[in-house]
Amino acid sequence: MSNTPDRAVPFSGLTRLDHVGIACRDLDASIEFYRSTYGFEVEHEEVNEEQGVREAMLRINGTDDGGATCLQLLEPTRPDSPVAKFLDRNGEGVHHIAFGTSDVAASAEGIGERGVRVLDERPRRGTAGSRIVFLHPKDCGGVLTELVQGAG
Ligand code: MC0
After folding, report:
1. Does the C-beta of 111 come closer than 6 Å to ligand 1?
2. What pTM does this model have?
3. Relative to the CA of 126, which ligand 1 atom is closest?
């Protein structure tokens, strides 16, 4: 009998890449770049004051579990926000990746038990009523990582 964990059943509950978050200084200009260069259209736009962002979701493809893979364009709404700090330090570019799950609290707990710092004690409100939790980039190979459970 092998002690190797069954890789077909991931403990994290993560099933897909939900979106890639991209920090930008001018949301409208960034939307226009992705529209005119790749043909991606905005599916949803909102301001999330808690996170300090104005954001747009651009759908790239749908999945058979009802999810989608998107680009999320993020413009800061205030200078002390995470995205504003990121832009000051790095300029425009990839800010985070987000994995989809059907139970964000359980996924965060399972991953936290592996020694990764979970930045949110409880899920916060994300795009379009989703529930989100962030993992510390220093525990994730330098990649700020979000877990997201869709509203539906
Ligand atoms: C910071 N660091 C990053 C990073 N942000 N590394 C990779 N990717 C990022 N995006 C690194 C810094 O370079 C620094 O490294 C260290 O982490 C500490 O950064 P800091 O900014 O000086 O310090 P903190 O601790 O104040 O903030 C970092 C932290 C924060 C990741 C904890 O930004 C955070 O809590 N982020 C989660 C929330 C968030 O990002 N919200 C915006 C998206 P060195 O080596 O210099 O120490 S909201 C969103 O996306 C919603 C709307 C949604 O999807 O629905």
Report:
1. no
2. 0.94
3. 55
